[in-house]
Specification:
The chain has 20 helices and no strands. The longest helix is centred in the C-terminal third of the chain and has 28 residues. By secondary structure, it is mainly α. The protein starts with a helix and ends with a helix. It is globular.
Length: 417
């Protein structure tokens, strides 16, 4: 049996077992990583451990710790109250405000995970405080981030346009940005219409009673809250203005705030979502192992060698969507565009259409709990049954993986080819 079949079979078994049985999927992923990596793919332990997502680990630990501290001293509630005043009490507008803020941040150069890391903790507190569906709120923040992610000033946009410029192809920056924005806006609208009124998977009464109560919000911030607001502003400036590692910044800010309020912050570390960390780290280590062994690239090349150009384009869209749900979107884009170039040069497919479709198909699935963005939503959700909410996120992502590439192909490739 080929290594590709074994590795993908192991992935399928992990999903089935992790979904049906009450065991963290990350544990299964770590077991499979070492078993498949050493026995089937011939990798050493050091080579396997190179795939451990250190940056993502630090980001989730730092951000969830900092916002746990900020929630315990009442700062998050202050931000929530201020946000509701900003929309004049119309709570239903909050998800759309978050969508637009995320789109503006990424369109002007913020890396999408950084924008999501800044907005999601506040968004999840909005959802908890005002009984909004956390799935809708979290997914709309992610969609907003991707709506602006392919402007010429954005990281992803500059990456794709830079790679295309090195070839004989021509892709309009306006077309790339517009395609991403419109499809993500349509996805958010559909998400809001279909899911906003759906029931939230709440904790039962006993578990809810164990949730930390938020401190009462007084009219004016005290000095600890002012200091927290200053730290949050420093986090935004450092991450967005100076491109500093957001995980380290958040840990520094969280440690400083804990030191000046040690009695209240004694249990702030409990706010770190360790179960989510284990889940994401295990799955991403497994996928990184497959990338290192060339399994992902081989699957993509197999897809590129099948059938007519239109069919190949659709297969490539599905390939990047499935792969990106478990791995770095940036890495997938970097790998898939060189594969698509020969296809575009030898066919009548629209270069702008296929490149935009691949870009959208790669990023639209970042709602997955195994990606940075989806993991942040999962880690920061409050007052929900974590296992049921995880299943909701998985189901939502599964729908996007199944339909997103088809929509991108049908809207961007088919009409112009």
């Amino acid at each position: 049996m080929s290594p590709e079949v074994i590795s993908m079979g192991a992935l399928l078994v992990m999903f089935v077992v992790g979904t049906v049985l009450p065991i963290n999927l990350g544990i299964l992923a770590f077991v499979a990583t070492f078993t498949v990596g050493t026995a089937s793919l011939g990798l050493t332990e050091d080579e396997i451990l190179e795939g451990f997502p250190v940056e993502l680990f630090l980001t989730i630990v730092g951000v969830t710790y900092l916002f746990s501290v900020a929630r315990r001293n009442g700062t998050i509630d202050l931000l929530v109250v201020a946000g509701v005043r900003l929309v004049r009490g119309k709570v239903a507008l909050i998800p759309w405000v978050l969508f637009l803020v995320a789109a503006l941040l990424t369109a002007f150069g913020t890396f999408t995970p950084a924008a999501v890391a800044i907005l999601v903790p506040v968004a999840m507190n909005f959802a908890y405080r005002y009984k909004l569906n956390p799935l809708v709120v979290g997914m709309m923040v992610i969609s907003g981030g991707h709506a602006g992610a392919f402007s010429p000033l954005a990281v992803s946009g500059a990456l794709v346009l830079g790679m295309v410029d090195k070839t004989e192809l021509q892709v309009s920056p306006v077309a790339l940005f517009t395609a991403s924005f419109v499809i993500n806006l349509a996805l958010s609208l559909l998400t809001y219409v279909l899911l906003a009124k759906r029931p939230v998977p709440l904790l039962d009464q006993d578990e809810a009673a164990g949730e930390d109560e938020d401190p009462a919000v007084s009219g004016r911030p005290d000095w600890r809250q002012w200091l927290t607001l200053a730290c949050l502003l420093g986090l935004v400036v450092g991450a967005l203005g100076f491109q500093l590692e957001i995980g380290f910044l958040a840990l520094v800010a969280g440690a400083l705030l804990a030191l000046v309020d040690m009695k209240r912050q004694e249990k702030a570390v409990d706010g770190i979502s360790w179960a989510t960390l284990l889940l994401v780290a295990g799955m991403m280590t497994y996928i990184a192992m497959l990338e290192k062994a060339g399994v992902i690239e081989e699957i993509s090349e197999h897809a590129a060698n099948l059938g007519a150009p239109l069919v190949v384009a659709l297969l490539l869209c599905f390939t990047v969507a499935v792969t990106s749900a478990f791995a770095s979107s940036t890495a997938i884009l970097t790998a898939i565009i060189p594969i698509a170039v020969p296809l575009l040069l030898s066919s009548h497919l629209s270069a702008a259409g296929l490149i935009a479709a691949l870009a959208v198909s790669t990023t639209i699935v970042d709602t997955s709990p195994f990606s940075t963005n989806g993991a942040l939503v999962l880690a920061n959700a409050r007052g929900v049954d974590a296992r049921r909410f995880y299943r909701q996120v998985i189901g939502y992502t599964g729908g996007i993986v199944a339909l997103g590439p088809l929509v991108a192909w049908g809207a961007l490739v088919l009409p112009w080819s």
